[in-house]
Amino acid sequence: AQMNSTMGVVQQTTVNYYPKCYEPVGYLRESDQRMQKAVGTGALVGAVGGAALGAAATGDTRGAVTGAVLGAIAGGLTGYYMEKQQQIADDRARFAAYGTDIDRTTGEFNRTTSAARNAQRCYQKEFKALVQLRKRGKVSDAEGRARFAEIVSGMSEANALMAAVDGRIGESLDTYTKAYESDLQKRGATRSTVAQSANRGGGRGSSKSSGVPTEAVNVERKVQKATAAREEVKTVSTSIAADTRSFCSSPDIGDWGKGNATCAKSA
Fold this sequence. Notes:
By secondary structure, this protein is mostly helical. It is 76% helix and 0% strand.
């Protein structure tokens, strides 16, 4: 499955049979809507302003946690970088602030992955149960088709929402990373130098040769962690897409996949 951050409105599944399976999909939809709302403000807000924006958008503490992510989405690189420069004069503290924001994107990626996996496991279980009902003649053709349609629609929606959320969180991660790189350049350092130190396990104190503080090395490690978390989103997305295709082509559901709109798209 290819992750696409420019997709439009994701079709919503009509839930009649599997509300528990849809709960994590609903979380992904809420995350996507929260981020769309941030983009819609058009305000040049950074991480601090974003925290308030996130709380206002959701009405709960989870919104505040993701606020920095929303702020970067709404403000972009220029707004974020300028705000950090104005708010935090000390280089070490500013690098540490970049690290904190990058950690938040890692958390968002992980929550996205967790929600999608939960939905995937639930729909997998229900698909197997539906196959057994069909084999034993315990479900009518009409109800079986409806149940099958809800399963593959929920899976497809989860995957599409993952792509949307991934794209927007990824934009935030790119913003933080570029701001961090700009600060390194101001010090005459490069990311490759910092990355070497991070990969060696170094980072105690500043490097006398490069003048890069420990905090910059820590930021590099956090970027690597966030990047790995984003790759996991893509891995889960690929798995969900494969499951959806497998469900649609399974001989155990007869011709229920034929003529199904979701199956036609996933083929």
